[in-house]
Design a protein that fits this description.
Elements lengths: L8 H7 L3 H15 L8 H13 L19 H13 L13 E5 L16 E5 H7 L4 H5 L1
Antiparallel strand pairs: 1-2
The site of one zinc ion has 5 residues, from strand 1 and helix 5.
Length: about 140
């Protein structure tokens, strides 16, 4: 059997993930896709990872509808950067340019599909952000 090496180039460039880690991610992704739990929210993300790894030139097609599960996911970090950039690196409520956060208009827990939708984000300073989340205000301000 001839083993054909998957093309990781684009993936590499974009996420800067070491190759061994990528292989591990692919194995995990396959495991998720073939699992019996068809409602598993990771399936879309897994399919996205596989396409990214295996299709040269594939970048953004499914990214828009990918469901991310981890707040540290590179897609979430990219989302936050793009939201701040769009808002001119200013709090949309008070205009402050310090301690900026990207806030989800429709909440992370309520709306998984829009977790990385730029239109679902606004830039807020930590003080304005804390007002949006009274329950965790102390964490935002700390
Ligand atoms: Zn928020
Ligand atoms: Zn503010």
């Amino acid at each position: 059997m001839i083993y054909k090496k998957p093309k990781f180039l684009i993936w590499n460039k974009k996420f800067d993930i070491p190759k061994e880690k990528q292989t591990e991610m692919i194995i995990d992704a396959i495991a998720v896709i073939i699992s019996k739990d068809i409602l598993c929210p990771l399936r879309k993300r897994a399919a996205n990872l596989l396409l990214k790894a295996l299709l040269p030139g594939y970048t953004e097609i499914i990214e828009d509808c990918a469901v991310v599960v981890n707040r540290n996911d590179p897609l979430v970090i990219k989302w936050a950067k793009e939201v701040k950039k769009r808002d001119g690196y200013k709090c949309v409520k008070c205009g402050s340019t310090k301690k900026l956060h990207a806030h989800h208009i429709s909440q992370w827990s309520d709306d998984p599909v829009n977790r990385i939708n730029i239109d679902n984000g606004v830039t807020l300073c930590s003080e304005c952000h804390a007002k949006e989340h009274e329950d965790i205000a102390h964490l935002i301000l700390s």
